[in-house]
Amino acid sequence: MYRTIFDLGPFAITSWGVMLVVAFVAGVWLAEKRAKKYNIPKGVITDLSLVLIIAGVVGGRTAFVFENWGYYIQNPGEILKVWEGGLIFYGGLGLAILCGIIFLKKKKVKVTVGMDVVIPSVALGIFFGRIGCFLNGCCFGKPTNLPWGIVFPHDSPAGWIFNEPIHPTQIYSSLAGLCIFGILLVIERKKLFDSYLFWMFLVLYSGWRIGIDFLRYYESKVYLLPSLTHNQVVSILILLLSIGVICSYRRAKK
Q1: Which single residue of 62, 78, 126, 143 could bond 177 by disulfide (Cβ 3.0 to 4.6 Å)?
Q2: The whole model's pTM is what?
Q3: In which domain, by residue range, is 61 found?
Q4: Residues 15, 115: Cα–Cα separation, whole Å
């Protein structure tokens, strides 16, 4: 595990930051390749990707700072240090969806089609991004006796808390992102309606997130209910909404 690749004076090139860039580059490249298939100008998708990236980082960081407000009110200079890690997926996804819809409407591109173009890139981004989390030692799991449990270095977020093998939940989530990516490409061949891939992504990801959060370590403040984190509660709502939308579309097709 290598948190810092090398230092550049007051700035450090971190493995998490590098993998975040890799995730963005791979996502934009994939979206551009898919634009032709959906008869959308490549330039529109490139610009949309940049909008989604910025919105994703801003939304994800804002949610993280809000969740850890007690720390950041004492250390306001740390708020903008995104390269050190600290994004909440649903915060970034929510703002990215909002900004993406506004952008597509301005470009007069059908929103539901644009959703299907870019959503596999999100799944691919999760694959690379969670590898960055593993290298950074964040988003880690609870102690385990399983043979693949990992002891993280003391200078990592995981190592500060646990000096014993823990679940590499980052790797679990990375592989889940890759699986979701593959599933989306397979079901795309028999897509039921525009935005089907988008809603299926939400079904798959939210279902996964509900399960994986039982293995992830969280501070007590993150739990909304005795055994459910705020991410799990949000995931349950998103899962129900997504299933409802898909079922309503299916009924309308009959």
Answers
A1: 126
A2: 0.90
A3: 4-190
A4: 29
